[in-house]
Amino acid sequence: MTASAHPSVPVSAGFADGLAAAGVRQLFGMPGGGPNLDMIGAAARRGIGFLLAHGETAACVMAGAFGLLTGTTGVTLVTRGPGLTSAANGLAEADLDRAPLLLVSDCVPGGQRDRTGHQRLDQLAVSAPLTRWSGTLGHRDPAGCVAAAAALAAGPPAGAVHLDYDPGVPGDLPPAPPGLPPVDDLALRHATALAAGARHPVVILGAGAARAAQPAAQQAAAQYTAVRAALAGIPVLTTYHALGCVDATGPGSAGLFTNAALERPLLERADLIVGVGLDGIEPMPGPWTYRAPVLLLSDTEVDGAYYGAPHVVLGPLGRTVPAVLAATAPAWPADAGRTHRDARLTELAAGAREAALHPVDLARAVAEAAGDAQVSVDAGAHMLAVMPFWPASRPHQVLISNGLATMGYALPAAIGAALARPGERVFCLVGDGGLGMTLAELETLARLRLPVTVVVFDDAALSLIEIKQRTGQGDGGAVRFGPVDFAAVATAMGVPAATADDLAGVRSALRGPRVGPFLLDARISPAGYRHILTVSRG
């Protein structure tokens, strides 16, 4: 038994010891009284800071983004009852977007539940469907419990874990993460036989390929290098989560894969489709229509049912990917990926005009200003204009909620990213709907003076939903907001801001060096979204 596990030593001290042992560097949250503050104080004595957010889900997103970019587990503290339930969307986002998150909540103590109804919920039952594991942090080896919970959240694959803080009971010990499976040699031999001689293979990189970007995972980084070397001469598609695993502007990059219309011309020409680290949370719902055989190479257990009847090979990607691709005989032109990508981007951009502020024109102008900066993108119509055009060159350079596809993600993710990349500017691309959900976090930007540039794709509407709206499904009141002067709101919260309604205004606002946060309220025309949606998704 460790010293911190002895009943005479406060559980909060054991909690902080466990964080330190797990390499946790930062806490996020919205505390209640008592136990939350004890934990914050104990962590501070071990050099682990706390960031006060305005909402529990926002705090979870901040923590998950911070963890993803630092190779650590992000940790969020919330109070009992409404604190835990308000964090539900944050738990779901972390779990479905494979972000490492440990949520620790206060609770009504077990010894008081028979007589106390106020804020009493079965919090473990609430969080269980949204997490990898949910249990109680009690007085039995709290340091070991917290360290194990952080390890489970880190994965692979990463996800959400929840601990209820109740010092009056022994508590639970989280299970060990599953770890990486050894190579299935028989399955690998079968896969190489299936790949042998394929003339038009196409590779799709998924979230599992991006996992190698974790700074602490040197072995994974070596695998990633081996995977990239094996891709030469083969067009490569990436999911949203894998964007940047190959240079998005390079000759081999064929653009994005969502199992929609954009990538269809390329995949219909393929005689072999090789998924590398593809995760079932990534593609759009819809049928799998391609006739080429599918190989799924993964270093974690994978359910391949979405892709028809794929052949699955488990094992380190650095071994399986080179072996399978070496068996192919690619006959693609050297720039086949770029040719496909450029044709699709040209089609997407058709109709973009500088006279009005088209979403694609805005996305391109922001990308030009951002350069190689870290970026976060919210869910909504604007992401269809941003993601295909973003020139990502490294894994996790673009943070987006793809598995849950939740709005309200981009601003808190940008805050987490700015803390993970001290001194580097972060760009946050968000629609007016998503910003409205997390508007108070602009104060967090101002308070911390974080170098985050927020660009609002402002059309006062849920444009993606409006395009899908049909007769009998309500009128404009179901999908349109009143106008909001987001620049004035940001200024009132201490964030310098500007408004633009044309490209000249956008470029002027984003020009030159800047210190601290900034918001650009870009008044776009939504007219181009219908064309973008048709080209992207059919």
Commentary on this structure:
This protein is α/β, with parallel strands linked by helices. Helix content is 37%, strand content 16%. The protein has 22 helices and 18 strands. It has a 6-stranded parallel beta sheet, with helices on both faces. It has a 6-stranded parallel beta sheet with strand order 9-8-7-10-11-12. It has a 6-stranded parallel beta sheet with strand order 14-13-15-16-18-17, with helices on both faces. 57% of the residues are buried. The N terminus is likely disordered.
Provide a quick synopsis of the model.
The chain is α/β, with parallel strands linked by helices and 538 residues long. It has helices at residues 11-21, 35-44, 56-70, 82-86, 88-96, 123-127, 142-154, 185-195, 207-210, 218-230, 264-267, 317-326, 336-349, 359-370, 381-386, 410-420, 432-437, 441-448, 463-468, 486-492, 503-510, 529-537, and strands at 26-30, 49-52, 74-78, 101-106, 133-137, 160-165, 201-205, 236-238, 253-256, 272-276, 294-298, 311-314, 374-377, 398-400, 426-431, 452-458, 497-500, 518-523.
